Amino acid sequence: MLPEPITKLIIAEDQAEDAEQIISVLRNSGIALRPQRISTEEELAATLESFTPDMVLANPACKEISLAAIAHALDATGKDIALLALTDRLTDDLVAEIMTQGSIRGIALRTRHDQLQSVVRRELDALDTRRNVRRLEAALRESERRCDALLDSSRDPIAYIHEGTHVRANNAYLEMFGFENFEDVEGLTILDLVAPQHAADFKDLLKRLARGEKPPPRLDLAVQRADGTAFDAVMEFSPATYEGEPCQQIVFRLPASSSDTEEELRRLKTQDPLTGLSNRTHFLEQIDEAVARAIRGATDQALLLLEPDNYRRVLDTVGITGADDVLRALAGTIKQRLRATDYAGRIGDHSFGILLSSHPQAEVQQIAESLRGSIESAIIEAGGKSTSLTISIGGSLLGEKNAKSQALLSQADDALRAAAGQGGNRVDIHDPAAADKAEAAREQQWLDMIDAALEKDGFILYYQPIISLRAEDGEFFEVLLRMRGPTEEVLPSHFMPIAERHDRLLAIDRWVIEHAITALGKRANQSSSTTLFVKLSTLTLHDETLADWVDAKLSAAGVQASQLVFGVPEAKVMTCLKPAREFVERWRQSGGGFELEQFGSGLNSFQALKHIDADYLKIDRALTTDLAHHSENEQKVRELCSQAHAAGKRTMVEWIEEAASMPTLFSAGVHFAQGNFLALPSAEMRYVT
């Protein structure tokens, strides 16, 4: 899966702490950010010179820069930049004032994190859509330019007709009918060019086309030139668009010397010679047209793909010479099941496609089951032998959400593989709307596993050694959580997001803390002390009873509070400063330690230390991964360590995967290092010295 693109963000805020909190909220929702903070017009101008943002979040209460000034500066760049107002409250007057300040696209509430995240994501999606539309419009203009050039150079007389009137005609068309230029035919109805004896029939055809009926593939009739002379011609119709409006492309041809020859050429162009169904190219064109109809709002369409089961076994029975008879028999059965509005095609050696129109969802399933049953019960004569076979059918309903040809084919093919993989002779229809239901069921299954793990000790603790680069006494481990799954252990990345959405984090944190304390109690007689680093969720920081509960567990196990260090990411702490500060102060009074993880990821990380008296700073892994090959990150790590030492804090680096980074860590003065290169996690506390 591709990583989420980085959003370049400017925040207009007077206080760095307020900007940090917003950044944390957005990062916690999975939005990758590259932030900058400004508080004056001069800072905004300087930032825009070297930094083109995707979005600007502006506080209307900023003292030295107004929303109107920000909107004006962004408009002056000529770039499409989403501007959102960021406020603590909403009143009618405030909304009216904000939304009249310029090109402001919305208002986000600082105090409602869910609304803030939703508004930002919505505007980022809208920005991405606008950019894609501009790219598509440019591509469309280029395609139209090329089509115009091809149209003008074509020797075939071609015209575009909208509501019976000419909107475009090429030079060959004008020459055929005796017009000097397009102005002579513009606004003229196609009916004016039809000879009187065919006018009534052609008028009736235009009415049917206006009702959305399919045009005939060709029409033989007499037409007349501008001077009134008549001649016989053949008209070929195909749906098209011109300047965004649906129309009919009409190609005029003089009657061929042999209509049989022309019909044969048309058949060879669109049909599979063995089965008489559409060939692959023509069938894919029909899929494109069905997708276009879905985009315009058409419903009750579906694509079915089918293949015979155990086709190799069938060939062994009937031989290569009988394979064609089998495929023709399959095609014949398919034809019998189709309406006039449906299409069927041979899209592979022994693969077929069926495009259904005007069939409700339940009817699609019935058609597929009926077709499967007909094939299963049929006796096929092939290669002088009798045989039978079964088929697997996979399909997908077509709607606006999956109105892309490649996506539709992929979904139908996945369903076909699923049907075949379950033993064949079955139908599997993909319903795009069912995906949400399946996701809900999957999440409930995970939630049941989490609850069972909490109730029956289904979690496992792993311990990864943390190596002191300053030869400090004692042994240090980070506590890592796993869950027992049906077949193997499950990593937290799979179940913790679900636990967070369903308020299970507090229970999980308490389970981890209790079992970590129990593990420490079992090592009470060790010659050297052991310190465990345990991750906490922000929800736990709000739990006013936790510190007393931990004290009681420590006392019962005979463990010192100093042997337990709780850690929370810097970004998450900034979203709940008050409860975090109260928790840390209470925990440090008991003698415990606290660690800020992912340190260095904010605008001014050391600002957090004014509020949170942390003992350890674990530097953000984005700055330390493959440290030896990134000089900018190396310099940043050195600066963080220097500031941390001056503040009396101990530093830690995680995810050390190779030896090349170690000299930098030693020279930068890092206190602790952790990673698979140094020691792998284990279910037992095995320390490496």
Short description:
With 689 residues, the chain is an alpha/beta fold. It contains 22 helices and 26 strands. Helix 22 links the parallel strand 25 (650-653) and strand 26 (672-673).
Descriptive report:
It is built from 22 helices and 26 strands. With 689 residues, the chain is of the alpha/beta class. It folds into 4 domains: 7-134, 3-Layer(aba) Sandwich (Rossmann fold); 154-255, Beta-Lactamase, CATH 3.30.450.20; 268-432, Reverse transcriptase/Diguanylate cyclase domain (Alpha-Beta Plaits), CATH 3.30.70.270; 442-673, TIM Barrel, CATH 3.20.20.450. The strands form 5 sheets. It has an 8-stranded mixed β-barrel with strand order 18-19-21-22-23-24-25-26, surrounded by 4 helices. A 5-stranded parallel β-sheet has the order 2-1-3-4-5, sandwiched between helices. It has a 5-stranded antiparallel β-sheet with strand order 7-6-10-9-8, covered by helices on one side. α2 (41-50) packs parallel to α3 and α15 runs parallel beside α17 (546-557). The protein is globular. The two termini are 38 Å apart. The model has no long low-confidence stretch (mean pLDDT 87).
